[in-house]
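Lab manual, section 2.4: Encoding a predicted structure.

Procedure: take the sequence of the chain (297 residues), apply the prediction step described in section 2.3, and record the output as structure tokens. A sample record is shown.
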Amino acid sequence: MIKIGGYGKFFFFFVFLILATFCLINDAYAYKAIQLNQPKVRLIISPGELKTGRIEVKNPSEETKTVKIYVEDWIYTDDSGAKKFMVAGTDELSCADWITFVPQEFTVSPFGKEYVNYTVKVPKDAVGGHYAVLFFESLMGNPDEKPEGMVSMPVAIRIGSLFYIEAEGMVNRSMELGKVSLTRESNNAPLAINLEVKNTGNVDIIAGGNFNIIDNQGMVYARGEFTNKVYTLPLDKAIFNATWKGAIPKGKYDLVITLDLGKALEELSMGRGPMIVKEAELEIEADGEIVSVGGLK
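Recorded output:
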């Protein structure tokens, strides 16, 4: 594991720029921060095999940048895709020890670019998905000596390239659908649809989906997309949300839910994932009240 030391006595304010999740920093610094051409690296590698690649690092500023590189772990903190970063090797799904890279530190000239070469070697007994982040850390601005011996406080910025590594042939991408609820705050309020899910596979899943409410003749009375994609690691739970503002006549219906578990693969044009289609019986009163919602099957 590669560890990076401090910059002397300077006070550090770390801002995490993970491009895949569009984290924001002060606009005054954003345009000067180093840029990576691969904010995500997703690889499918057979157990016992390795793959190599490289990441381009650009310096869009007029300042020379010294960049230090190190590996950490990450996990999702909620189903929106927010992340927590940890010391390498902390999480049981870490692949930090599988990653080697050169160089570990380099200088990028103003408006120049450099490259970091990496190798990912998957153990022979690996199964499922494993995760890490390669951080590129640099100072924003150089410290200036002050007349009275004071030192300015530079801002240290680190930008991450997230690694998603799958053991080829050893992946189970599956999700369990739990409770579905349909509610209205009042008779004239939009219909709120909430669906609880759980990642029951052994790999990360980014999922999206849609719903249809149809009668026994196949007539569609409501349809729409879930307003959120959910981001999960194995055993994580999440909730899909959707609303319908239109009126639905009194009657019995089928609620048809379709989930796409392959959004993570589609993002990087690596194929499509499995689809899940489930139905539940639904009864609605004339005033729009939800009388009953059956279990998904």
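Check your result against the sample. The CA atoms of residues 188 and 223 lie 18 Å apart.
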